[in-house]
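This part of the workshop introduces the protein records we will be handling. An example says more than a description, so a record of this kind follows:
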Amino acid sequence: MKPTPHIYALTNSSLLLDASHLDAKDKLSIQKKIWALTNHCKSANEFTDLVPAMNSLTLYLKSDKHLNKWLQVLPSLWDDIKSSTFKGQHHLIETTYNGEDINYVANYHNLSADEVINIHSKAKYHVLFLGFQPGFVYLHGLDEQLHTPRRDEPRVRVPKGSVAIGASQTGIYPADTPGGWHIIGNTDTSLFDSTSAQPCLIQPGDTLEFVPLVNKGATHD
């Protein structure tokens, strides 16, 4: 029997599709299927919100009358939906690689700062989900050469627009906030605007690339 996600009611008007137990060599393929399913459900106009996360989708219904219907429908939709039906937007994030931790990251991996810039900016990243703070994107695709443990002591303030690395992830801080990732650069691209009809510039399933504005690394300490 083909493995299927666990689907169950959270409340009288919300459901959770949990695919975290599915064994897939390429976890990104499961995530793409979740994004495709999210788009399909949006067209039904029966939900107040749809929240894709890592290997899961939470669905908030407008009416509890539709709960049983979706409990029955979602398993077959999952079987039928094709991940290739989802097409996200692609974003180019202009980045100045002048972060105060770029030398630390370079030294940790026995690389030059310029090599860190080249490796980081040559990748195409997939947006897995949003979290931590509004507009913060969790990205898939950081080269293993740059996987760097988080700082032992998080900063009290990481400036808005900081491009940073934490363990196997890279991301962009959309606002000033405490944080424990290593800052390697900065972008002026605004990721979150509460006054906009779509407050978050980047959505789950989108892709992005970092475009160096100044391809100049700092010197080693």
